């Protein structure tokens, strides 16, 4: 359906971060929005520990939030700036690796808090209706129709059909909307689970109420094949996430094995967490899986589209899952402006434009796990990091490091990778020419000094003859 310049009705499936922000964007344009979420309202529900992974907000998410008037308050009132990685060695030593320049940082933000803010902001708009415990169970996306299962307070279920001009699937990595897209011809889909899972733990505040570690850092304990990270919270606690192979999780099947493991690999973290709390939290939880999803196209005709994790779920190691999802909302909003609410044109261009960038950041996220858990300890990594920082300081518009382009710019993710590949070629060729020039220089010096060298060699021979 084409709606040149007119108002449309929008059905959003998923009330998480991206779905709630998408509702804010469409409501801002004056469109009628109905949002359906299968869970209960997160603002009134008891928050379950172990399913969050704190968020690292960077410029892409902030730009999207700014459009709907939420960026300033979220960053000022809730975000905790993190200016560097703080690397913890096994002997307790710590060293900081800055993310970028002294002015650049990412912000630690609580997932639940941010979701609550977005839902409340959406709900304040009279054009938005929120429905919780409403689960999508089917539909015909080509007609803008979804079937919703409603669970009432007594636990009984009933189904209803909901129709709109546009259906938006923002329902996460295991998207019900995407399942319907998979029935469409020429729809490509792949998912990859890594062999590592994650589990959340907690470092409480000190008795004084202060942070137990330096606050403005993302703390990392890299240990080769596994790692642990910690992000600061507003209450001065730390959300600690342990990443390692599922087999390793299974091997820690007694409190003593767990404590021995932590005392060996994370000795400085044990007193911060506390032995009793570590044992309690670990055995009350189960490691959760991590999945990467790629698919194409993201739309059906002029009536349905998927965004966020539904379109491009990624492992969390580049801190770009939320940022990419929020950027989806921002890009789609710009395309609606460009095409004057012509859904067919906007949806087609979104799929074509966004897919290479989404796949690029999914690949980068996979690579960054290796960097975080292992490469940050390698001298070659640190040397390249220092070179990139120096070159960026010397030529800020010419040499932009990979992490800076992903985290502190709006460069397309696919171009971030191409930019890095170009930088690698420049360095490799520079090293080749430097080596060649060095050999030529040594050869030239040797040629000019050949008489001197020959005299020295002759003298050494004569001395040897005299000695023997």
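-> sequence recovered:
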């Amino acid at each position: 359906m084409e709606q040149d310049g007119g108002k449309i009705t929008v059905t959003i499936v998923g009330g998480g971060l991206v779905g709630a922000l998408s509702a804010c964007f469409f409501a801002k344009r004056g469109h009628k929005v109905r949002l359906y979420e299968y869970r209960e309202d997160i603002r009134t529900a008891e928050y379950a520990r172990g399913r969050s992974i704190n968020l690292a907000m960077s410029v892409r998410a902030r730009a999207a939030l700014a459009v709907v008037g939420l960026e300033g308050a979220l960053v000022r009132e809730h975000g905790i700036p993190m200016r560097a990685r703080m690397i913890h060695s096994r002997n307790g030593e710590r060293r900081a690796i800055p993310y970028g320049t002294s002015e650049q940082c990412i912000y630690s933000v609580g997932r639940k808090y941010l979701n609550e803010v977005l839902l409340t902001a959406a709900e304040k708009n009279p054009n938005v209706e929120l429905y919780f415990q409403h689960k999508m169970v089917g539909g015909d996306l080509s007609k803008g129709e979804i079937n919703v299962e409603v669970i009432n307070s007594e636990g009984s279920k009933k189904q209803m059909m909901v129709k709109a001009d546009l259906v938006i699937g923002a329902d996460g990595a295991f998207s019900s909307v995407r399942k319907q897209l998979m029935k469409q011809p020429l729809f490509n889909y792949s998912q990859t689970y890594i062999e590592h899972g994650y589990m959340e733990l907690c470092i409480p505040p000190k008795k004084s109420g202060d942070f137990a570690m330096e606050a403005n850092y993302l703390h990392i304990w890299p240990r080769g094949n596994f790692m642990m990270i910690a992000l600061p919270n507003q209450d001065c606690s730390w959300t600690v996430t342990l990443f390692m192979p599922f087999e390793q999780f299974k091997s820690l099947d007694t409190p003593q094995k767990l404590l021995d493991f932590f005392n060996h690999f994370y000795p400085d973290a044990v007193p911060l967490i506390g032995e009793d709390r570590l044992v309690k939290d670990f055995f009350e939880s189960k490691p959760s899986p991590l999945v990467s999803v790629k698919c194409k196209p993201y739309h059906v005709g002029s009536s349905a589209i998927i965004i966020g994790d539904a379109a491009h779920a990624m492992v969390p190691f580049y801190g770009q899952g939320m940022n990419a999802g929020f950027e989806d909302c921002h890009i789609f909003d710009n395309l609606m402006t460009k095409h004057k609410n012509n859904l067919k044109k906007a949806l087609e261009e979104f799929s074509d434009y966004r897919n290479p960038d989404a796949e690029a950041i999914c690949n980068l996220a996979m690579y960054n796990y290796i960097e975080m858990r292992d490469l940050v300890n390698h001298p070659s990594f640190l040397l390249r990091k220092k070179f990139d920082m120096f070159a960026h300081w010397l030529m800020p518009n010419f040499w932009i490091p990979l992490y800076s382009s992903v985290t502190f710019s709006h460069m397309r993710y696919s171009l971030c990778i191409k930019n890095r590949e170009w930088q690698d070629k420049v360095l490799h060729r520079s090293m080749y020419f430097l080596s060649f020039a060095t050999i030529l220089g040594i050869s030239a010096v040797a040629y000019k000094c050949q008489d001197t060298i020959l005299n020295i060699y002759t003298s050494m021979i004569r001395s040897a003859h005299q000695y023997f």
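The CA atoms of residues 41 and 361 lie 30 Å apart.
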